[in-house]
User: Fold these one by one.
Assistant:
Number 1:
Amino acid sequence: MDQTSSENDEAAGAGARPNPDIEGAEREVGVGPWEGPWPEDDRFDPEFLRHGDRRNVIDPYRYWSHEAIVADLDAKRHGFHVAIENWQHDFNIGTVVRTANAFLAQEVHIIGKKRWNRRGAMVTDKYQHIRHHATVDEFLAWANTAGVVVLGIDLFPDSVPLETYPLPERCVLVFGQEGPGLSDPIRRAAHATLSIAQFGSTRSINAGVAAGIAMHSWVRQHAAPR
Ligand SMILES: C[S@@+](CC[C@H](N)C(=O)[O-])C[C@H]1O[C@@H](n2cnc3c(N)ncnc32)[C@H](O)[C@@H]1O
């Protein structure tokens, strides 16, 4: 797991500034120092109990140590992975990581360049397993060994509609980058390529948005709240 972002970044919303034009925007996020009898639970972090917890985490994880939160997430992770090609420093990766965290993906895979812009991730990358593959072959070898079905997500003439496709429980949803889209080697290796229906004039939607829609399709089929 990549741990390069600091707790301070997280508390500050990764550089976000409160907007005084939005009602309540200056309200502090999170909780202050613990009040009442000191809790026994060893998932709690004494520093957060003493000083408060302003991290970008859901309320049930308040005051938990970082390790305890990741261990809890790891015990519940879903069967899908996401992958995105990064040959020219794709600016959508932060969004993909944040959404993968929200929908509890097993892992995010970055294919190509290792560096990516963390700003859009809002420090969610600290809680998300991220694996780098320098080449498509390396990525495909991992998918084969892991027994995960590779599904390309792009608007090709032979793509099938994501809206009606039964997504396998264990799969990796692969996204291309702005401009070139999904690369030929991924397209050839994919079990299927899936398209998201569009109705307007644009040729495509943003890759981060496409990733959110595809992950939510998996959630609707396998993990939707009953
Ligand atoms: C902006 S698109 C790439 C440009 C696109 N090849 C074109 O001709 O305009 C970047 C990535 O977003 C995803 N994407 C965008 N729109 C999509 C759609 N309608 N269906 C499926 N994937 C889409 C795909 O993964 C694609 O590789």
Number 2:
Amino acid sequence: MKITPHPEKTFGATITNIKVSNITTSQFQQIEDAFNQYGLLIFKNQHLSMSEQTEFGKRFGEIEHLVQGRPEMESVNIANSGGKANKLLFESSMKPNTSRHFATLLGNEVWHTDSTYTPVSSKCALLQAMELPSTGGETEFADARAAYDDLDADMKRKIEHLNAYHSLHYSMANDESIFPKVGDAYGYDGKAYLRPLVKIHPATKRPNLHIGRHAHNIVGLSREESVRLIDDLNAFTGSKAEYVIRHKYSVGDLVLWDNRRLLHRACPYDYYNEKRVLQATRIKGESSERYLEHLQEAKLSEAVLAQELKILRHLHQENVFSIEPLACKTFGAKIRGVDLANLSEGDFEKINQAFVEYGLLIFPKIGLDPETQEKFASRFGKLRFNGTPMGNYVDEYKKGEIFALDKTGMKINVGNEQWHFDDTYQPQSATGGLLTCEVMTSWGGGTGFLDARAAYDTLPEELKNEIKDLKAWHSNEFSQAMDVGWIPPRGLIPIYHGKAYLRPLIKIHPKSNRKTLYVGRHAFGVEGYSRERSFELLEKLNSHCRENEERMYIHNYRRGDLVLFDNRCIMHKACEYDYSNEKRKLVGSRILGTVETESSIQGVDENGRIALENELNAIRQDMEQGIFRPRLQTYQNAVEKLISQKKNGRVIASL
Ligand SMILES: [Fe+2]
Ligand SMILES: [Fe+2]
């Protein structure tokens, strides 16, 4: 037996040269030790029968029966096919499929830990790949112990004694908008179970974040604060490369993971056309996995759940148009219950008003195709473009190969990781942007949004006065040079046009009349200021924008999510991901600004050209003297490493 720990992650090991259906007691001891140490074990080439898998599972504890009234079923198939003919169960349609089975598969795509919605949550679980789709369908794991360790001291103190309720009724309603009745299937018992946010692992005695999609209504916090804290902790656990393993199965792979330490989730695949069958065994927890039944609040669980479901029913139930502001943020709202392909004038007006008020609208899993997105986007104004893939590959280009990190497309992508407003480097800046998520990565890859109105409102009075009449130039050649250390060749693509456009530092929103701090990565050369003083002022304003998390929100996409953001008051940025190894695709549309309200300050074209030329020359000089540091230094380091490897003849496909 060979145990190989994952070289780059905080957890996980691969085990080869052993078949787990045929092991000695001392080999099991080694496996159990590895399980406690690594949290995730991947056994290659197992090809176990259902009973062999069950028997191996029983070595870890009591089997958890997942099918109500069928105690003989100790392991089960998790699949999108079934019946005597083993046929695919779901038909593709633009409308979301509302069957409970389908919703269960989709629900598994959200980070969770198994069976926290039962009195005794699961100790560990086994999945073996029996039948696989050609792409997708992986399982991802995230280390909630490493994530806990990396929390700052304040957060650790804050969550130390907090408890949350866990319920499958809640997660299915919240994530999939379905409301099964008590007794419908395993886990729907009308109850919620109180558990600590920080769980001490019974074997390692280490603290772990004990969260996931089933957690709700933290005791002692408002509903808003609770939603936000659980969202933040779940997102943080899935946010870093070293915490996350995406396991791409081969048939016969068996994975075993520790539910008391890791979160996991399923990756989407083509549910309608390809089969995926995983053989699953779940092991019950021990007394340490029992809920906090001795606490007074445990007795309130049914009432808390009923009240929560009432709220969710109101927000999610089909065809009920709802606008739900983001928890604890100065902006943003989720919209449900609309059919954007057939939107009445009245409903469009409501959405348009919400767009102006909240600045960011999220339509969870609405799944627009590019034509419907274009139709919807066009109602806000003329489009600059539609259906443009935003990511690290293009389906039709070179068979969908991932772009190399040092290619122009990636320089543009990575540059977008600095906060910005779109098109401020064009004669008319943008009114808004739309992004639909088609393909998402195991970690990162989200979009960050920032409320620049709230940023303006909270500026110190003297700074407001200082910038009242100031203007800055905007150029994408400048921002590319500053952010990724690359001065784009003039004319390579139309946005490298050699012009800069002058805009005020305070933009008045044409609809709400609210003042916006209009800065971001494209701005440079404040008029009337020296280069140094201008840099200093812009950096001060940009960093003020980032100061407070109530005005920032990172959207971690699920497939089919649509975001619509107001480029006249909300900045955004792309979030890093594993560019070289994982694909990411958002489909973008951009709404052109109107001439009357989004035009740059006219009649200064020649000054703009000169300002940009001077700025680029100064950057060039700094580069030549070796004193230039791009704002995204990590990218620069990665590219330099790639180039030196190419020079040394050690060309590798990825970094
Ligand atoms: Fe699961
Ligand atoms: Fe952008």
